[in-house]
Amino acid sequence: PVPIIIDCDPGHDDALAIMLAAGDPAVDLLAITTVAGNQTLDKTTLNARRVCTVAGITDVPVAAGCDRPLVQPLDVAADVHGVSGLDGPMFPAPTVDVVPEHAVDLIHRLLAEHPEPVTLVPTAPLTNIALLLTRYPQDAARIREIVLMGGSTERGNRTPAAEFNVLTDPEAADIVFRSGAPVTMCGLNVTHQALATPEVVARFVALGTPLGQTCADLLTFFGSTYRALWGFPSPPLHDPVAVARVIDPGLVHCVEAHVAVELHGRYTRGATVVDLHRSTGRPVNARVATVLETGPFWDRMIAAVAALGAG
Ligand code: BDR
Ligand code: CA
C-alpha cells in the first residue's frame, strides 16, 4: 500500500476522505493532521477525532497544526459545513485523542522515519504543507507526491474565480505549487463530477451499519447547504477524489500543466491559473485532474465505509 498522510479540515467531505483512506487497502494511512479552514482549528481537530471514533480508526495519530493562514485572517465556511464544521449527525464524545506534537513536526518526523517516500494528501488550506516546505526544504525529497484537493481549471466556489482551499490561504498554495515537489491538483472541475446523488446516499444507508448511516446524515446536511447556496441537485464530494487518485490513478485522469496561484488580482485573488493549452511557455509544475471515473469511485468509497463498519 501507498503510505499517505491526510492533512484536512473536517468538514463533511474531509470526513469521507478520512474513511476512504482508512478503509481502502491500497493506502496505508500514517497520520491525520488538521488545519484551520472549514472551521477553526479546535473544531476541525475535534471533528477529526469524532470521525476516527465513529469509524473505529484508533491506530492512526491525529495532530493539530496551524490555526490560521500564513498572511490573511481565517474566514471559515460555516455556511457550507455548519457551526460545528460537521453539522448533521449526532456524534458521541470522541475517544480518540490528539498526539502532543504539532502537525508540521509530525509530518516532518514521519517523512524522516518512513522507509519509503510518503504521499501527502491535503484536503484543506495548504498552511501546514507550506510551513513544512519552508521550514524543512529538504523534506521535498522525502515526499513522493502531494495530491491535493483545491483550485479549479474553471470557475471558483468562494468567489467567481477562487476555490475555498486556495482562497483561504493563497500564499500557502503559491508556496506548494512553486516548491518543485510533484503536485497533483484535484480541483472543482473534477470534484464536481463526484455528486452524491440520492442513489449514492441510499447505498450508504443500505450498508446497514451505524457508520453507513452517519455518512448518509453527513451527505444529507451537505446536500442541503449545496442546494441552498449554489442550487446543486446533489453535493460534490470533493476531498475523497484526491484520496481516490492515490488509491488508483486510473480513477482520476490528469493532464500536465503549469499552475500559478493569483495573489494580487483585484477580483481574482486565490484563483488557480492553469495553462492547459501551454500558452505561457512556463514549465509544467503539476498534474491537473480532469476526469473522474464516477462509478468505480463510488464503489471504492462505499467499500471503504463497509470495511470500516465491519471492523
Ligand atoms: C473544499 O472546501 C472545503 O469546504 C471542502 O472541505 C473542500 O476541501 C472545496 O472547495
Ligand atoms: Ca476540506
UniProtKB/TrEMBL annotation:
This is Purine nucleosidase/pyrimidine-specific ribonucleoside hydrolase. It is an enzyme of class 3 (hydrolase). It comes from the Bacteria. Residues 4-299 form the Inosine/uridine-preferring nucleoside hydrolase domain. Gene3D superfamilies: Ribonucleoside hydrolase-like. Pfam families: IU_nuc_hydro. Its EC number is 3.2.-.-, 3.2.2.1. The keyword Hydrolase applies. Keywords: Glycosidase, Hydrolase. GO terms for molecular function: purine nucleosidase activity. It comes from Streptomyces avidinii.
